[in-house]
TrEMBL record:
It is found in: Membrane. It comes from Collinsella ihumii. Signal peptide: none annotated. The chain crosses the membrane at residues 34-55, 61-81, 116-135, 147-170, 177-205, 211-234. Its main location: membrane. Belongs to the CcmB/CycW/HelB family. The keyword DNA repair does not apply. It is a multi-pass membrane protein. This is Heme exporter protein CcmB. The keyword Transmembrane helix applies. Keywords: Cytochrome c-type biogenesis, Membrane, Transmembrane, Transmembrane helix, Transport. InterPro entries: Cyt_c_biogenesis_CcmB. PANTHER family: CYTOCHROME C BIOGENESIS B-RELATED (PTHR30070:SF1), HEME EXPORTER PROTEIN B (PTHR30070).
């Protein structure tokens, strides 16, 4: 008598990898999200250039370069987050994913990871241009490479929290405006901490690096708390 072999459902990691690769292949094929984010970031840099054209002292630019850089990242990420579910909703793919036996938390992790990767690619392209346009003639501190830590911690938080909020706004009228209204207040503590740490790294003033590490720790704590909350609430958001 032959035993019937019941196929096991794919593991959570296999589901995560399949969903993540779906987003990556789709973006490599269309390049819509990355192209729009890079073009938007370049337009923001152009506006920065016009607004700062009368600032002759490079040191003045360095003093608020951290705020300019994070404003660029936040507004560019809003554009990408608005488009993160566009293909799924337009083609009806999201309903198919929800009907499949896939853990909702896996969907969140895969979409957050894809948003993180795309935002990181845009930052790799745009941040050198930001330095070239605004800080090439400035006397930047030797501690400037330390901006990598707040950039990494902040980008993780933006991608994680933004994924939850973009899912909340996915089926609403005027979702672009709604996402911005939800996103900016929720992300403000992270933004404040990252701007503080980034500005400290740009200026490199002795005696202020306690504030740098405190700001990075606060940003990391924000990431842990908010991403854990988003991971736990995602099932309710999708099924609402």
């Amino acid at each position: 008598m032959k035993r019937s072999h019941v196929s096991r459902p794919p593991s959570g990691f296999s589901q995560f990898r399949a969903l993540l690769m779906k987003d990556i292949r789709q973006e490599l094929r269309t390049r819509e999200m990355l192209t729009s984010m890079v073009v938007y970031a370049l337009l923001v840099l152009t506006i920065y250039g016009a607004a700062l054209s009368q600032v002759a002292d490079g040191l003045q630019v360095v003093s608020f370069a951290g705020g300019l850089l994070w404003a660029l990242i936040v507004f560019t990420s809003l554009l990408g987050l608005n488009r993160s579910f566009s293909h799924e909703t337009e083609s009806g793919c999201l309903e198919g994913i929800l009907l499949a036996p896939v853990d909702r938390s896996v969907i969140f992790l895969a979409k957050a990871m894809s948003n993180l990767l795309f935002l990181a690619v845009v930052e790799i392209i745009v941040i050198p241009l930001f330095f070239l346009f605004f800080l090439s003639g400035a006397d930047v501190a030797a501690t400037t490479p330390m901006i990598a830590l707040p950039l990494a911690v902040g980008t993780v938080g933006v991608a994680g929290v933004g994924t939850l909020l973009s899912t909340i706004a996915i089926d609403t009228r005027g979702r672009d405006v709604l996402l911005a209204i939800l996103f900016i207040p929720v992300i403000f503590p992270l933004l404040y901490a990252c701007v503080s740490a980034t500005t400290t790294a740009f200026l490199g003033v002795e005696g202020t690096f306690g504030a740098y590490w405190t700001s990075c720790a606060l940003a990391a704590a924000y990431d842990v708390i908010m991403i854990a909350a988003a991971w736990g609430l995602y099932e309710f958001v999708l099924d609402a």
